[in-house]
Fold this protein.
Amino acid sequence: MSIYEYRVVPAPRAPAKEKGLKGTDVRFAATLSRVMNELGADGWEYQRAETLPCDERKGLTGRVETTQHVLIFRRERAQTAATGPQLGAATPPPRTDPAPRLVLDQTKRD
């Protein structure tokens, strides 16, 4: 069974200016592509984009609900001894020492 770790990054809000690219949609797509390729080079696999509610402070006592746009990535985590036994793991080898024997105390009877 694979174990994954996840990374959540804020989605770009504005397109970066790039030479030769005109139009907001094209520049935004290039910005998003650059973010995804940078994380992909580190082994992160793009999963999905989410829009989630977020409570933010406004002033000293006020709160306002906004939405945050995030990108979710995952990659398989390396198996280490610290992760412990996994489901479906192989059974341990049979014991070579004799099993402990149960000895009944015959002196006490009800």
